[in-house]
Design goal:
- With about 160 residues, the chain is of the alpha+beta class.
- It folds into two domains: about 5-60, Beta Barrel (Thrombin, subunit H), CATH 2.40.10.170; about 65-160, CarD-like, C-terminal domain (Methane Monooxygenase Hydroxylase, Chain G, domain 1, Up-down Bundle).
- About 50% of the residues lie in helices and about 20% in strands.
- It is built from six helices and five strands.
- Strands 4-3-2-1-5 form a five-stranded antiparallel beta sheet.
- Helix 3 (about 85-95) packs antiparallel against helix 4 (about 100-115), helix 3 runs parallel beside helix 5 (about 120-140) and helix 5 crosses helix 6.
- The longest helix has 22 residues, at about 120-140.
- The model has no long low-confidence stretch (mean pLDDT about 90).
């Protein structure tokens, strides 16, 4: 399905490049694994080849999608539950989909909420994780550095004015 050199997205972890395909024996069972190198933090992830469908592994988006992702970030905050627990669960579900637009929406909504009201510790961690997932894919999609993508996202939010609900 995927080959060495392919740029892929692993929902909940982010985007990376397949650097190897290895056979490993784990708990007495031999399986083939994609070895994915993440562009941020030099981390490598082993992904079982036979679980690709269930995991939701997909190719990194193309250039035409990138501009739409930035439009999502520039958009207005979506309606979110005032209940922290419901909001957290809804955002977790969006991140799990692996859909770049859903992840961008979580980044946008939590960033705006942080600017206006501040975030709880759990939501700050979620914002940090979802930003890393989004940035890792944009780095590969745009062939830019982490710093360049991070700067562009920061500029989007610094250029807007937000009002308290």
């Amino acid at each position: 399905m995927f080959e060495i050199g392919d740029k892929i997205v692993y929902p909940n972890h982010g985007a990376g490049t397949i650097v190897d395909i290895e056979e490993k024996e784990i708990l007495g069972e031999k399986k083939q694994y994609y070895i994915m190198q993440l562009p941020i933090g030099e981390m490598k992830v082993m992904i079982p080849k036979d679980n690709v469908e269930d995991i939701g592994l997909r190719n990194v988006v193309g250039g035409e999608v990138v501009s739409k992702v930035y439009q999502v970030l520039e958009g207005e905050q979506s309606e979110m539950s005032q209940n922290w627990n419901r909001r957290f669960r809804a955002n977790t579900e969006k991140i799990k989909t692996g859909d770049i637009f859903e992840v961008a929406e979580v980044v946008r909504n939590l960033t705006i909420r942080d600017i206006i009201k501040g975030l709880s510790t759990g939501e700050k961690k979620m914002l940090s994780n979802s930003r890393q997932i989004l940035i890792s894919e944009l780095v590969l999609a745009e062939d830019k550095s982490e710093e360049e993508v991070e700067e562009r996202i920061t500029e989007i939010f610094e250029s807007q004015e937000f009002e308290e609900e």
